[in-house]
Design goal:
The protein is α+β, with helices and mostly antiparallel strands. About 40% of the residues lie in helices and about 20% in strands. It has an 8-stranded mixed sheet with strand order 1-11-12-13-16-10-9-4. A 3-stranded antiparallel sheet has the order 5-7-6. It is elongated, with a radius of gyration of 28 Å. The two termini are about 55 Å apart.
Length: about 450
């Protein structure tokens, strides 16, 4: 959420920002209510000045010979009447401010100056690439064929028990998903300095508002019927909200936390996209990275978090590229986002596997995340940063497609073999046995 005073004082700039994001700003109601609020404040301040003058006159008269004159009684009655009028105006001001807040929650974050201006993902700026896509002596297959042929991915069973956009992993497929998550967590906790958290997968509406999912994206979420509980779309929500209404000591910044959780998304706006395979699912698993940062360090911390996510891809030797999202493709709460896109030879394309975003104080203002520091011990809003480190299912896809062999088997990346009980290769026989070495 943006600062209300900033929006009021820069409403034209905010509208221009929203247009750069590809939105059609409808802030006329905000402008009208703010004008009404300003007029009420002006009237209230004028009355307060009149009341102060009357009070000073009463005090002067009481000090002199006129302390018992009718004029004193008149002035006292007048100050009381003015006080009642001021209370009425202040009540109207509070009512307007309460009506302004829901409108404020619909205004997105302001992109940083370094964010490229554009209208869609076509205008995103590629920053760098790592690794070279492998050359194949055969036509590489997509994961939806590989996984089914190997007997490790069962989409038909998922449709039977749940419906579309779900998956069942079997044997080495399930083991590979678990191995990837454990490897990611170990790297982030042992080498990158993150503390592992195991949070709930259900959160309340306050937590969803704190990170910006509500009210704007309610249609993309799953809510438990007749409750105030929502299935998390990402561990960003519970991890960030651990610090809601908390004042952190400045010396503890940055806070670095990570979690491996299931994630649930209705994908309400994505029908017709990525209908094959497991690129876009209602349920998937992800390792999330979150930093609560000092404002003076958040830009650098954003870069560090992005590099931490990249380290997973490098260790797995998966080619990828980093792009900076343009204004029209930027998430609602983000001030700047880097997408990591992994190469998928079965689709002959780079596909998103992580989004690493800096929210500045946008989420912290919603969730009231503050820190205390300096000689005077004042508090200030912290900055929040998060990113996937990585999306486990999409990493599973990348391993299958990049490590596939001509005989239909899939090699296990060396760094994952200790997590797979020494398994070196997934072969089709795993429909009847869980592992085969060599």
């Amino acid at each position: 959420m943006l600062d209300l005073a900033y929006v009021r004082d820069h409403l034209d700039d905010v509208e221009a920002m929203m247009r750069r994001r590809g939105m059609n700003p409808e802030l006329s109601e905000f402008r009208q209510m703010d004008a009404e609020r300003r007029e009420l404040i002006r009237c209230s301040e004028a009355l307060k000045q009149n009341r102060n003058q009357a009070s000073e006159e009463v005090a002067r008269l009481k000090r002199g010979a006129e302390r018992d004159s009718p004029r004193v009684a008149e002035l006292i009655a007048s100050t009381r009447a003015i006080g009642e009028e001021i209370a009425g105006l202040d009540g109207q001001i509070k009512e307007i401010e309460a009506r302004l807040e829901p409108l404020l929650l619909t205004i997105p974050n302001i992109p940083q100056e370094s964010v490229p201006v554009g209208t869609s993902e076509k205008d995103n700026a590629e920053l760098r690439r790592w690794g070279q896509p492998r050359g194949f002596a055969f036509e590489p297959k997509a994961h939806w064929d590989l996984g089914v042929e190997l007997g490790i991915l069962d989409l038909e069973a998922a449709v039977k028990i749940s419906g579309a956009r779900f998956a069942v992993y079997r044997g080495a497929g399930a083991a590979l998903e678990r191995a990837l998550a454990n490897f990611m967590l170990d790297l982030h906790t042992r080498q990158h300095g993150y503390t592992e958290i195991l949070p709930p997968a259900l959160v309340n509406s306050k937590s969803m508002r704190g990170t910006g999912q509500l009210p704007k994206f309610a249609a993309d979420l799953f809510q438990c019927k007749d409750t105030d509980l929502w299935l998390i779309p990402t561990a960003e929500v519970p991890l960030t909200n651990l610090y809601a209404d908390v004042v952190i000591d400045e010396a503890q910044l940055p806070v670095n936390i990570t979690a491996w959780t299931p994630c649930f998304r209705s994908e309400a706006g994505s029908y017709g996209k990525d209908v094959r395979g497991i690129i876009r699912q209602h349920q998937f698993q992800k390792v999330e990275l979150v930093k609560i940062s000092h404002p003076s360090q958040s830009l650098d911390d954003h870069e560090r978090l992005t590099r931490d996510a990249e380290a997973i891809l490098q260790a797995l030797e998966l080619p990828y590229r980093v792009v900076s999202l343009c204004t029209g493709d930027l998430g609602f709460s983000s001030s700047k986002t880097y997408d990591l896109e992994v190469w998928l030879p079965g689709q002959n394309a780079y596909r998103e596997i992580s989004s690493c975003s800096n929210f500045l104080d946008f989420q912290a203002r919603r969730a009231n995340i503050r820190f205390r520091g300096g000689s005077k011990g004042k508090t200030a809003l912290a900055h929040t940063i998060n990113g996937s480190g990585l999306a486990v299912g999409r990493t599973w896809i990348a391993v299958l497609e990049n490590y596939q062999q001509e005989d239909g088997s899939v090699l296990i990346p060396e760094v994952l073999r200790p997590y797979m009980g020494g398994l070196e290769r997934i072969v089709a026989e795993q429909q009847t046995r869980s592992a085969s070495k060599g």
